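Task: sequence design from structure.
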């Protein structure tokens, strides 16, 4: 840590944050009557959120998708919970942990838009998805459908059940620029056979930021007797929706992404009808086939992370779901609109704002994605991640609410220079 960063860090921990939580909440409250689209473009306003983050001065961070590191005020809450759980030790685990976790599940279910009985806290999307993928009663010859743009380890989990049980996986490829929802729905529909049991589908494709018409895919699949498992790793607290509106059978997400919880928190939704049909990944004491705890047992785990989920939800609610979505979409549209028709620059994310939110992907003709990411970092101090496969060749760009248009201007200038 250099001297400047150290001084800011020390100041932040001594004084809470440069913009205290109460003052921040009051500021957000005072702008209740401003519509979210107007507010999304108010840089002075969003600088209050930026002041909550201890940002590394080394680069502009446009890789917030892996993990949304947490603002200082939430970090302080987290450290407080670590101290609390440590102080009470086994007493906490024996007397408070279970009830507190139930309360957090209750609160999380309001955010996710489903019944708390159908929701479990897991460690991440990977665990949530694997509980379903490895927990189904597979028979040799059963078929599944997934897309080559799905997350790598989900595809691997599906390959695992193929190797283990003789399941047949069918792969589709989602176009980067679909003309309509129907085009996407047909893609999945055309891959269904009488043996299809499950569709794995991403709510938002992590490498391009394309949001898929999940409700329409689920309705189509159910008409044909096929279940749908949705990978919503990047969806929760990014854009607004209710799991119950999606009509899916299973849903997994990571809370350490857009909800900004400490690392190691996820959610699993299982439709009540499907609950008895799953084998547990980790076996616990709960035997009631209708209780989600039977399939979501983890053993002793960081209880302080569970507690901080509630604080992260408070923080998210303080910003406001609509305002956060509008800000993220504004930031993405701000830079993509400035490069979309530039020679040699290729956008791998649909232009229609309804088909994406904060995430987008950009490539440059003649520059390999890995080289592009390297040059952005080394020549322009901009941190991104390269994507090189599944018909997506470019860098994934994920700003966060604290990103400024000034940073995006630098990014646009860098892209145009590299493409020139
Ligand atoms: C679409 C998608 N699914 C699953 C994951 C895995 O998330 P986690 O590592 O939090 O389990 C990611 C991670 O980026 C992802 O983008």
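Answer:
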């Amino acid at each position: 840590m250099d001297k400047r960063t150290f001084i800011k860090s020390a100041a932040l921990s001594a004084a809470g944050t440069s913009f205290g939580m109460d003052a921040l909440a009051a500021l957000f409250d005072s702008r209740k009557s401003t519509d979210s689209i107007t507010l999304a473009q108010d840089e002075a306003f969003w600088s209050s959120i930026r002041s909550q983050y201890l940002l590394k001065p080394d680069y502009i961070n446009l890789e917030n998708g892996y993990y949304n590191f947490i603002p200082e005020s939430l970090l302080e809450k987290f450290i407080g919970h670590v101290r609390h759980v440590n102080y009470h030790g086994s007493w906490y685990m024996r007397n408070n942990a279970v009830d507190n976790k139930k309360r957090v599940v209750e609160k999380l279910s309001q955010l996710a838009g489903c019944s708390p009985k159908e929701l479990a806290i897991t460690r991440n999307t990977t665990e949530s998805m694997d509980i379903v993928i490895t927990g189904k009663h597979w028979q040799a010859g059963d078929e599944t459908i997934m897309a080559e743009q799905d997350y790598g380890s989900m595809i691997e989990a599906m390959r695992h059940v193929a190797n283990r049980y003789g399941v047949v996986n069918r792969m589709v490829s989602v176009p980067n620029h679909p003309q309509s929802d129907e085009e996407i729905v047909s893609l999945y529909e055309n891959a269904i056979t009488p043996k299809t049991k499950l569709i794995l589908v991403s709510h938002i494709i992590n490498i391009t930021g394309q949001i898929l018409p999940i409700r329409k895919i689920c309705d189509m699949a159910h008409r044909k007797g096929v279940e749908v498992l949705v990978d919503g790793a990047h969806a929760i607290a990014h854009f607004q929706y209710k799991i119950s509106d999606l009509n899916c059978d299973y849903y997994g997400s990571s809370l350490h992404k857009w909800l900004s919880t400490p690392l190691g928190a996820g959610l699993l939704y299982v439709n009540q009808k499907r609950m008895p049909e799953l084998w547990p990944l980790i076996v616990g004491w709960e035997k009631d086939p209708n209780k989600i705890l039977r399939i979501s047992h983890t053993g002793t785990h960081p209880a302080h992370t569970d507690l901080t989920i509630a604080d992260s939800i408070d923080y998210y609610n303080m910003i406001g779901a609509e305002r956060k979505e509008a800000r993220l979409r504004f930031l993405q549209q701000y830079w993509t609109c400035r490069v979309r028709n530039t020679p040699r620059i290729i956008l791998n994310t649909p232009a229609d704002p309804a088909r994406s939110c904060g995430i987008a992907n950009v490539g440059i003709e003649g520059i390999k994605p890995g080289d592009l990411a390297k040059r952005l970092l080394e020549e322009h101090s901009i941190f991104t991640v390269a994507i090189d496969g599944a018909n997506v060749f470019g860098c994934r760009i994920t700003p966060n609410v604290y990103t400024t248009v000034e940073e995006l201007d630098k990014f646009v200038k860098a892209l145009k220079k590299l493409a020139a």
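The radius of gyration is 22 Å.
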